[in-house]
Amino acid sequence: MYSVEQIKAMGKEKNENNLLKLFEIFKLPAPIDIRREIVSSIGRQNDNDKVYIFMKREAFNADNPMELIYQIFRTCLYKSKIDKRFSDLKQEIINYYKNENIKKMNEFYDFRQQRKNMPLIHKITCPLLLVGDSSETLKELPDNSIQLAFTSPPYYNAREYSDYKSYADYLEKMKKIFIACNRVIEEGRFFIVNVSPVITKRAGREFESIRYPIHYDFHKILTEAGFYFIDEIIWIKPEPSLPDRVSGYKQTRKPLSYKPNCITESIMVYRKNCNFLLDKNMKNYTEYEKYENEEIDTSNCWFIAPKYDKNHPAVFPEELCRRILKYYSLKL
User: Which residues contact 206 (CB under 8 A, 6 or more apart)?
Assistant: First the structure.
């Protein structure tokens, strides 16, 4: 059994003997990390005739897992500059698999080849308060002028200030706002949304209430608005601070009547669509302050008490905002 390091060494040494040896090793049973490295090392070799025949055969082999297909596609990307056969094979793979990761790889590669510059950043240097409908007021801001957006959309028909004629109408309105946010957020920076399921009040005891899984439905409209999913952080609140839903079951122990106390909300972390890694965002800032001596949250569960305010029924705890700023923006 060869190691990853041995396979890599064969890939760096470009000669006929190593290429033939790699072909033979590929036929042997091996863990996926070894097989992936074999494909990568074959792709580094100079004999494009033999490499192309191998890649063409294995690209559509149903026995190959997608991890190997990604490596084959990677070879096609880099060899397409010098050999049209690989360019054609690249397009065949795209059309055949219709795979989101292959599509992303292709976009990243094209971006790097074009050496696009980051859009001009119009920095907002003083506090600014926009009052009104966000889908309209955000039009006052320049493109790519915001380095982080963190928001908690209104709860669907659960507060006096949040009243919509239907759930579909609510989601459509949220999508318009997300699209407006996408325009003003800098390329590749974060958009973070705090949301939780909402239950509507029953019109009477003879009717059933409806519980809306808003965080699930938000994923679709966030991606349609130009963002892609990064993480979900679970905000956990002290149980005594929240409405008691389980007391009925405690008393009766009737099957089917169980309703747990809802002590969590979702912090949905998304990034604005882009064809480059976060490193490119970092390079825009030559100087920024690091949080050297602060405690680090190591899991996606954050234990933070809610905050109450007589002037607003749903306010952010300052600690929640502080952590979002700490982890998803640069302190200049």
Answer: none
For 82, phi and psi rounded to 5 degrees? Answer: -115, -10
Q: What is the 3-state secondary structure (H, E, C) of 227-272?
A: EEEEEEEEEECCHHHCCCCCHHHHHHCCCCCCCCCCCEEEEEEEEE
pTM metric for this prediction = 0.84
Contact (CB, 8 A) for 68 and 102? no
Contact 193, 203 (CB under 8 A): no
Residues ≥6 apart with Cβ < 8 Å to 10:
18, 21, 22, 41
CA 286 – CA 293 distance, rounded (Å): 21
pLDDT digits (tens, 9 = 90+) for 150-190: 999 888 866 666 678 899 999 999 999 999 999 999 999 99
List, in sequence order, every beta strand (DSSP E) within 139-263.
146-151, 185-195, 198-199, 211-212, 227-236
> What is the mean pLDDT of the segment spanning 82-89?
96
- pLDDT for 274-312, tens place per residue? 988 888 888 777 666 777 778 899 999 999 998 887 777
CA angle in degrees (0–180, nearest 5) for 176-182-186: 165
- With vertex at residue 199, the alpha carbon angle to CA 196 and CA 201, rounded to the nearest 5 degrees, is 150
d(CA 200, CA 213): 12
